[in-house]
What we know:
Layout: H1 8-28, H2 34-41, H3 45-51, H4 55-77, H5 83-109, H6 118-138, H7 148-161, H8 165-180
Amino acid sequence: MPPVHQRSDASRNAALLLAAARELIAEVGNDVALDEVARRAGVGNATLYRHFPTRGDLLVAVYADEVAALCERGERLRGDPDPIGALFAWLAEFVEHVATKRPLALAATEGPAGRRTRLFEEWHATVNATAAELVRRAAPALRSGVTAVDLLSLAAGAAITAGGTAHARHLVALLRDGVTAAAGRAV
């Protein structure tokens, strides 16, 4: 069967809806009124529900875009001539992502009894793979034994406990000093 292609106006409307939802979620949180998303996108409610039948579908689509953008930034940084600089530039973006998008991630992926959905696990694996490649490139300048999981765990902890994104980025800068100060020495 040939692939189904979305009409250009349908693609445009989906993009407008996602952009409007992203803006409104940033302004008022995940409980944004779906009518307001349609209004801001300049489309009717029927168009919204045709693309995103439920609030959950809309939240998943917005968060999927956020994860994709974070990982695309990591892909672009893979070519940076300074692997340590690239790794920590990406980790700074990662802490901002966690600090600002965590409620969206939880709203979009929390299943029954607070369990994470398969989709959450897929996104988690994608972020881990991006970090692993950046760590692999930077490994010669890192302390022996430092892994992507180590750095993601520390960065996520900084993002969740810090007093805002600026403080989280500061903690990542301290982390950089700690894992690169004595490269080669085991931890």
